[in-house]
Structure formats: C-alpha cells, structure tokens
C-alpha cells in the first residue's frame, strides 16, 4: 500500500512538472533594473511588504499582445498575477523613482534568468497629467510605445541593454511599462518602473 502511495505521488509530481514546463511558467525569466522596476525594488529590499515578488522578480509573466490583450487594467504591473498584486498598488505615489531627463537618450537594461527567444521589447510611458496614486490602466499610457526594439526570434544574452530617447515634454512623476514579448510561448513579461523628470 505504501509503495502505491509513493508511486502515485511521484507520478503526480512528474505530471505537475511537465505541465509547468509545457505552459512556460516553470523556472524564472527576466526583469528590468534600469530604470529599476518595482519587482527589483522589492527583491533588493528597498521596498518592503511586497509579498512573494521579493523572491521572484523575474516571474511577472502574463499573456502577450499588449495593449490589445494581456493583463487587465489595474493589474498591468503584476501581469494579472494575484500573487504579485503588490506591484499594482501605487502606494500613494511613493514608489522610489529613477531620475530621468525628458528628450534625452537612456540605456534600458534587462536581466534574464531564462533567455527565451524574443519577438521584441516595447516601452510605454504614462501621459502627462497621469495620477501616480492610481493603478496603471491603458488609458493612463501614451497610446504608442516610445521605443520598440525588434529581436527577430533571437535569444538575448543574460544581460541586455539598448538605448532609446525618453519622450520630450514629460515633467513630474511618470511610470514606464516595459514589455518583453516572447516568441516561443503565448506570454510576455511586464515591468513597471517609476520615474521622475
């Protein structure tokens, strides 16, 4: 009887592991650290009371196709994952912010722990007049990404930087949404970075 129970448990674990691998949700993936993302701020202890994201900054993965698809409004920074809902909390607009200069070049950097083949990287920024004390919605973002980096199904290195121009005319506090679209799964990775102009 005991052998059957152990055997059944091993089979169940094997099925669960295979399911995770098939869905692309197993393991870890990537996040932005320049400008520093909310998940990285939680992981390095700069921000506390973050829940499980502090151990998994690389796992903010949701359906791709943003903005037509992907996570729902108000759940964009967490990629719609309830275990990472702390990332959607605006904390009264008090997340630490990276200082940027509008209209200037900036080097955006991703750190990868699983290097998926990649369609592209896109960066969106909030509109002027956006309220940083509110959860992020599509309506709060400029409609087009200010930077798109095609990657042609290539596999990125462990660390990837690329330069782009931060939009001119931005003042005060804003939020940059970085979206890494994976080519070989149905998902993308999302990272929200608070910035101050």
From TrEMBL:
GO terms, molecular function: monooxygenase activity
InterPro entries: Cellulose/chitin-bd_N (IPR004302), GlcNAc_Chitin_IntDeg (IPR051024), Ig_E-set (IPR014756)
Signal peptide: 1-22
UniProt entry keywords in alphabetical sequence: Monooxygenase, Oxidoreductase, Signal
KW Membrane (keyword) present: no
Domain Chitin-binding type-4: 29-195
One Pfam family, short name: LPMO_10
Membrane spanning stretches: none
CDD domains linked to this entry: LPMO_AA10 (cd21177)
The protein's name: Lytic polysaccharide monooxygenase
Species of provenance: Streptomyces exfoliatus
